[in-house]
Amino acid sequence: MIEDNAGVRILIAFVALAVLTSCGYGEHERVLRSLTGMEQVARSLGPGDAPLTGPRRVGEAEFQAIYRAGDRVHFQVGEAGPGVDPHGYVWSPGRAPVDDSGPSVASSFEHLQGPWYRWSDSY
Questions:
Q1: Does a structural domain hold residue 63?
Q2: Is 6 within a domain?
């Protein structure tokens, strides 16, 4: 019985160690730690600038595209398929973006902090 308890304790210790070393920060936490760098990128994009496409790292976060849409800058993390249901984060310093639903797209925004919002579009 003593050997069985020792084996169980070793197994528990191994599993705990594996969980602790394999679990890094999630996407959201990486984005939160990258907001300062993201704001620098957002401020550098002018109204006529071309979108920044392709994988791009800002701080600890990676984005598929970064682009200005009116007075907001979108940091796209992903999409359900090519051009379908993009999602990510939005920098909107002038005003809070409002959830909207149109005939072709529904956009939703969740406030994070300051001028930052989590964003998703559904087509």
A1: yes
A2: no
> Phi-psi category of 114—alpha, beta or left, where left has phi over 0 and alpha has psi -120 to 50?
left
Q: 107 near 118, Cβ under 8 Å?
A: no
**Number of domains making up the chain:** 1
CB count, 10 Å around CB of 58?
A: 21
In a domain, 87, yes or no: yes
pLDDT tens digits in sequence order for the chain, 123 residues long = 555 576 666 656 554 444 433 445 698 899 999 999 999 999 999 999 999 999 999 999 999 999 999 999 999 999 878 878 899 999 999 999 988 877 777 889 999 999 999 999 887
Instruction: Report yes or no on 4 lying in a domain.
Output: no
